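User: Predict the complex.
Assistant: Input components as received:
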Amino acid sequence: MNKITGIELDNPTILAAGIMGTTGASLVRVAKEGAGAVVTKSIGPEPKEGHKNPSMIDLGYGFLNAMGLPNPSYPDFKDELAIAKNESNVPVIASIFGGTEDEFVDVAIGLMDSEPDAFELNVSCPHAKGYGASVGSNPDAVESITVAVKDAVDAPVWVKLTPNVTDIVIIGEAAQRGGADAVVGINTVKGMAIDINSGYPILGNRFGGLSGHAVKPVALKCVYDLYASLDIPIIGVGGVYTWQDAIEMMMAGASAVQVGSAVYEGLEVFSSISSGIKSFINENDYKYVGDIVGIAHERI
Amino acid sequence: MNKITGIELDNPTILAAGIMGTTGASLVRVAKEGAGAVVTKSIGPEPKEGHKNPSMIDLGYGFLNAMGLPNPSYPDFKDELAIAKNESNVPVIASIFGGTEDEFVDVAIGLMDSEPDAFELNVSCPHAKGYGASVGSNPDAVESITVAVKDAVDAPVWVKLTPNVTDIVIIGEAAQRGGADAVVGINTVKGMAIDINSGYPILGNRFGGLSGHAVKPVALKCVYDLYASLDIPIIGVGGVYTWQDAIEMMMAGASAVQVGSAVYEGLEVFSSISSGIKSFINENDYKYVGDIVGIAHERI
Amino acid sequence: MYPIDVKIIEIIKETPSTRTFVFDRSFNEAVAGQFVMVWIRGVDEIPMTLSGKNSITVQKVGDATEKLFMLKEGDHLGIRGPFGNGFTLPGRDEKILLIAGGVGAAPLAPLAEYASSIGVCMTTILGARNADELLFVDRFTPCGELHLTTDDGSAHRCGFVTDVLADTDTAAYDRIYTCGPEVMMKCVFGMLEKENSVGKTEFSLHRYFKCGIGVCGACCMDRKGLRVCRDGPVFNGLELVDSEFGNYMRGPGGNKELF
Amino acid sequence: MYPIDVKIIEIIKETPSTRTFVFDRSFNEAVAGQFVMVWIRGVDEIPMTLSGKNSITVQKVGDATEKLFMLKEGDHLGIRGPFGNGFTLPGRDEKILLIAGGVGAAPLAPLAEYASSIGVCMTTILGARNADELLFVDRFTPCGELHLTTDDGSAHRCGFVTDVLADTDTAAYDRIYTCGPEVMMKCVFGMLEKENSVGKTEFSLHRYFKCGIGVCGACCMDRKGLRVCRDGPVFNGLELVDSEFGNYMRGPGGNKELF
Ligand SMILES: Cc1cc2nc3c(=O)[nH]c(=O)nc-3n(C[C@H](O)[C@H](O)[C@H](O)COP(=O)(O)OP(=O)(O)OC[C@H]3O[C@@H](n4cnc5c(N)ncnc54)[C@H](O)[C@@H]3O)c2cc1C
Ligand SMILES: Cc1cc2nc3c(=O)[nH]c(=O)nc-3n(C[C@H](O)[C@H](O)[C@H](O)COP(=O)(O)OP(=O)(O)OC[C@H]3O[C@@H](n4cnc5c(N)ncnc54)[C@H](O)[C@@H]3O)c2cc1C
Ligand SMILES: Cc1cc2nc3c(=O)[nH]c(=O)nc-3n(C[C@H](O)[C@H](O)[C@H](O)COP(=O)(O)O)c2cc1C
Ligand SMILES: Cc1cc2nc3c(=O)[nH]c(=O)nc-3n(C[C@H](O)[C@H](O)[C@H](O)COP(=O)(O)O)c2cc1C
Ligand code: FES
Ligand code: FES
């Protein structure tokens, strides 16, 4: 049993935001496949259709996506969240976004009826104008949004960080000051791809966010730095495909890992990661999974 | 013939800094293999042995390195630079670094005797304390260093930018204000890797910089953004392995490309990229290679 | 992978509302029922079934398809795929029934041609709004028995494919395949359920696709969370029992849109 | 790839200054002469030739090798590789000559064993500072003719491997292989040059390695810019003509260090 911000997880793998998280049914499916918890698609104050396609391409070594935060808004999503809560048997974390403190608060309060186990504040999406990272690269904004949501709801609040800043620790510290119960890192890394046959940027939004294998080293460094400076738990995300990746992330300082792009490989990824972690802990004389969290910091 | 900051290149492929660039002989070898120009290893004011090994690992989808700017310092390197200049038959760009304006100037002046065709200011290495990116994430420092070197030497000055900042355009604009003749982007992306068998970070320096395939999308976005805002040429670097990658980089806005990690695939990479570019230009009814520079900006 | 550039080498006006775009590039590995993401640069990228190894057949319904219709031979498209699961191909000795409505004939025509090439005995029920809109009559005709219906009776039998199906002994077939408007397929489903034939029937579904590769979740169906782009678009009827099929789908934002 | 974790299952004290570390993991694809990067965690990563499919043989010379000597059976190392080009293996009917000095016997012992296993006729000249330091006498002995020399004459012939070489008719050999201190190899090179035998001789070289994979350029030799880690570490003698070989190498910062 892993406990993070008061939430009990059967295993430390968590479905990342924006992956099969738009409907209650798909969240339930992922939970049944073995995720220790699931995070919903980021939900905002107004319905959004997202960017035009192409919205995601497979690069082989990772993915580029610019979905544009498509979501039905919180009034419509409430029922989906309730389904996830009632049927998944794992903690369900509501990812939310907004352009202002008030919007964040509206969405959080709007979803409270469905009793999410925690909120994850998406202040880090790199390709939605006025939302996400444009908020999340400003430590003051991150702090005040965190304070506002913490005040408004009685649930743990996680803050999801963008790596597209000069120093992620400054943003992490702002979240901590604001009362965040945990930080989650990383969201995608700004990137783009161009079709040389036509000269067109491939994504409908022209640019987007890089995820998958390519960002694991970046995520590890962010988690490592955050762990060195913060007192709250860190949830590691970015390029986790295998139990080895998960162990690596935990050794850098993550108390749990989120899995996004690796869902492409198949939903078995959750059970295969969590059973791999279990074996690793047993075979290496660690007492429990918490023993490995942050140990890279002690290896000098 | 491509002309960049007054320098004539036979083809738009340039050896990136830090790759086979520590000796005159190795620079000559790369030139003979078909590079249109070569950049030296970054040279500093004092001899440096660099970080302990492991200093570079192959991730499959890219590389992590933390060399630590090993270099014999400018007095020792002068002769190597002269060999490169005399025997390579292509423009030779001296990459230099320092912790202060004065150090940059000392190194530049110290190398002038060997008549480099340009200087490339490394204000972007992510893993050398007090050098590189710790300077290069501060726009004022970038501007004043650029001014100082421009004043001190009569040669084009390129400024190499780090992607590890919230907005690379602000740094690019600082370089331009300082009188840079071109900017070069990107240097490596901060990252790390951990050995799960022991918990040790793998690199001797614990963390390092990501290069190769994984960073191409990041480099493209940086080049794209810089092109939209700057008036000086942009030289694209990051994950260029094939002529398709080079074309993509140029469509984003690069006037030429640098090739680093792809040297791992073999030194033929320069001739294969440059001949591929040539065929592409001919087969697609472009008049010359400059026609494609930045065209992604026009495709809306 | 990046979209593959294809040149349109031929445009065939199949019916007043549908055109086939033939590419200079064949997707020989594709199985009938698989789809590609078709990128009309500067406009949108939309899912289309491969109506042949190197073609798509498109019905004009909105923005992107309208832009597609403005393209000429020699123009280019970007293609990602083929993606998803195609139809389970019939064995040599099986008897099969195809039920196609409108542009739903697109994935079934290559299936029919494949089946015919290995000697499978087949019956096709092909329906459309009116005679002009009957798609691929020429492709189905040589493959086996063909029943045509039109909603307005402008040709052949007046009525729906389900009317023909009502007269058909589905027990005589080893496999049934269907594609068409979801309301049509829902009726088919209902009829086959009564005859206990759902388990041998494959339905080719449409949902709103974003990623097209099974990650984003835009195309997930209730109540199992099946991804149409990855777990489908072809589903065995049993997978659809108790699902949203025929009742609603999701819009681009994840909102429910009732049929 | 990340370093592979290996467990040291046996440590053999070969001579007062050298130890063989045997791993629980064999690198069966390795060719004699290839090297691995050996990571002593928390200390350094250094290049070592594989003295067997699952072993390295180390001479204590400084920091990292000293730490290696402090390890015990059951301890672990990280291994990247095998890297570089090994020796050109001899053909069945060829006659070969091996010239090994000190720990330079490490890459030549597996070569000798391979050659012997396919019946190659061979002569080995093995030298060391003194009798105790003669490495792998037991491995070379069963493989063919063996000449031993010691600098101090403490065993067998007093003198250098080059003294034995001077008495040898190199024309009688199809291939010659050598590894040892660079000054020794330089002498060998000079002698073979006079006999026009450089072109059939392979030299296994050492340089300061950083990346070990041919990218950083730390190990480049003048004047051709050959990378010892990637184009070598084994070079045909002709590649070394007119090079820095025997004159100088580069230190970690790229500065010249004269021999
Ligand atoms: C697996 C699959 C195979 C298909 N095969 C064919 C085919 O062979 N021939 C054919 O004519 N049509 C096919 N379609 C439907 C086709 O994708 C839509 O008609 C097309 O996307 C309409 O785009 P539009 O911009 O012209 O319409 P819009 O004006 O955007 O909208 C019209 C309707 O088209 C649908 N649509 C729009 N965008 C998408 C999208 N990204 N993904 C899914 N549906 C969308 C929506 O239901 C929408 O209500 C297929 C759909 C799927 C999912
Ligand atoms: C291809 C190759 C194969 C080798 N095989 C063997 C072998 O089988 N057995 C053996 O005992 N030695 C071998 N060596 C030499 C061995 O790598 C050095 O003895 C070792 O690196 C010394 O490390 P140290 O920290 O103990 O010494 P230090 O105190 O660091 O330095 C002593 C000397 O070792 C050399 N050295 C140090 N670090 C490196 C490095 N990263 N790369 C290359 N040389 C270095 C330098 O010349 C230095 O002057 C090989 C070297 C190379 C290049
Ligand atoms: C298709 C897609 C959609 C995403 N949507 C969201 C989102 O809505 N909110 C969010 O915070 N992160 C979103 N992300 C980011 C992921 O949650 C995750 O942080 C990132 O992809 C890195 O993890 P990965 O390498 O495991 O994918 C999305 C990622 C992808 C690939
Ligand atoms: C081993 C290695 C050493 C490098 N050394 C330097 C350096 O000294 N100065 C510098 O400006 N960039 C240095 N770089 C960065 C490269 O020049 C280049 O910006 C980066 O690797 C991205 O390009 P690539 O993907 O083609 O390798 C180094 C990169 C590598 C891999
Ligand atoms: S469209 Fe993204 S999962 Fe199907
Ligand atoms: S050690 Fe880096 S090129 Fe040889």
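The CA atoms of residues 128 and 134 of chain C lie 5 Å apart.
Let me know if you want any component modeled separately.
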